[in-house]
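Narrative of activities, Objective 1.

The group set out to show that a structural description can be obtained from nothing but a protein's sequence at a throughput compatible with the screening campaign. Below is one input-output pair from the validation batch, recorded exactly as produced.
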Amino acid sequence: MTAAPPSLHVIGIGADGWPGLAEATRDRIRAAAVILGGARHLDLLPDDVTGRRVPWPSPLRAGLPDLLAGIPLGPVVALASGDPLVSGIGTTLLDLLPEGAVTIEPAVSSVALARAEMGWPAESCAVVSVVGRDVALVARELAPGRRILALSSDEHTPRAVAELLATQGYGESTLTVLGDLGSPAARRTEVRASDCRGTFSRLNIVAIESVGTSVGASWTAGLPDSAFEHDGQLTKRDLRASALARLAPAPGEHLWDVGAGAGSVGIEWMRAHPTCTATAVESDPDRAARIGRNARTLGVPGLGVVEGRAPDALDGLRRPHAIFVGGGATRDGVIEACLAALRPGGRLVVHGVTLETEQLLASLHREHGGELTRISIEQVDAIGTFRGWAPLRTVTQWALTR
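Output recorded for this entry:
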């Protein structure tokens, strides 16, 4: 961006529109040389607002730099819905413009209005934005008795959320669709997820009272293997929990899951916190497609999947905070590329089941230090009419913190 307005005042507008604004806020809008906003917001302005009205570009984020660079000097106002920092344009503008260039004047957020309408204290419910996002994000929050507020994209979102709940075993959940909150046209519609019909307001929030099973609900590492679709190429539950304990997911951090198989490590990394991100690298096209399905089912549809073979497939990826190598450690250049990518404080965990990989990991441990562990697991299995211990394949684990 070569230029930007010296200041941009972002004003939140409630569903009651212009009449609901304070007089001082109206005066600020009247004084603006340029007024940015969506078509709906710009249409709310009365005729005595004479500033040039400029609609947001489409696609929004890609078009914003050029739009902002072309705005002449003078007072500039941007209009937004409710609180501009609740899944709103305010967040995007703060990301794009220099520090101090954006000021925010919020109205009461739709989330606050929804909590008040439902009588749900803030600490008693989760908030998930599916505005322009996959409704599968709701799946991460599902648990019996869980209250969730889903911020909708449009009038079709409630039905999409209902379909998701039904496929996740939560079809008996109650959905309360809150439309046009804060306006005279506000409406409240209560439906069961398995029987979601009717039409809904374009501006709505879906309040979910979860009724269903708890399978897959835990955010603690080590989901049951049955939670994942797989062809046998899966980091098993106990090994996965051990790896993730050493990978140590933290908010905002990024993981590479190399030789991802079913994607279980990357998926559980992202389930640890909504801001955790991951890229799964998998050379087999069927498995790569399966990773995407698993990620959506388990509520992390944003997991990136790269179909390719390391180390070449690692070129150009976002630099990670942690790396898991579940397969292909002995391939030339893989471990070297992973070590080179690690930032200070970064974690690397490598699993091996073959003698060749074990020898490699022993050599790496001797050279770089870290933690070298052999993990042997036995599970009860039938022996005729009796039961006995059946050993699983022993796994060697090397863990390093840079």
